[in-house]
Design brief:
With 203 residues, the chain is an alpha+beta fold. The chain contains six helices and eight strands, in the order E-H-E-E-E-E-H-E-H-E-H-H-E-H. The longest helix is centred in the C-terminal third of the chain and has 25 residues.
């Protein structure tokens, strides 16, 4: 039984690294992050520790409304998972957080993907490798490749994901929950019925 929802945020920051990845993947939105609340206040990935320094990469908690990300093109997807899967992923996140300074961005592993060369680097990840590693023990979400070969496009193409937003990341609707969206037709229906009743009474 699925009880929890997590979020995958795909972005194009327009940086030189992003453009380079776009060239060899021929896919848009080549940065992926994982979030744990609908408002995307708690989002993690591997990327720039210092937004002004492209070589300061590592494990980061991202601010989707900060200067670096808010103008990015984006797509946000939701995934339902079990409580146990959620607990496992959160446990992995805590392990990354507790040793954040030990991790670095896996630039070499990123270059190895188009060359189809398997390179293992200790404590080094690129964004999609990080997300794929977190999801390895999730039965409801399977990827066709090893984590060190997974691209953001591979994650995005998973049929279990549900697209909930597409556009400028800084414009992401903080409070537009799926339940609220579903309630709109109900409200309209009730309103129309009450209006007809009033018209009938007046007549």
């Amino acid at each position: 039984m699925r009880e929890r929802t997590i979020y995958f945020i795909f972005t194009d920051t327009g940086t030189y690294l992003s453009r380079m990845i776009n060239l060899y993947t021929n896919k848009p939105l080549n940065h992926v992050s994982i979030g744990f609340d609908h408002e995307l206040k708690e989002v993690y990935s591997f990327g720039r520790i210092n937004p002004k320094n492209p070589f300061s990469g590592g494990f980061v908690r991202e601010d989707i409304r900060g200067d670096f990300l808010r103008n990015s093109k984006s797509a946000v997807y939701a995934l339902s998972i079990t409580e146990q899967e959620y607990i496992s992923i959160r446990h992995h996140i805590k392990q990354f957080e507790s040793r954040a300074s030990d991790f670095k961005y896996n630039f070499i592993g990123l270059i190895a993907i188009p060359l189809k060369v398997e390179i293992h680097r200790k404590n080094a990840f690129f964004c999609s490798q990080f997300v794929a590693t977190l999801m390895e023990d999730t039965e409801s979400f399977k990827l066709p490749k090893k984590a060190n070969f997974v691209t953001p496009a591979d994650i995005r193409e998973n049929s279990e994901l549900q697209l909930i937003y597409q556009g400028r990341l800084g414009d992401y609707p903080k409070h537009q929950l799926a339940e609220e969206t579903l309630e709109i037709p109900k409200q309209s229906f009730i309103y129309s019925i009450s209006k007809k009743v009033k018209q009938f009474v007046v007549r």
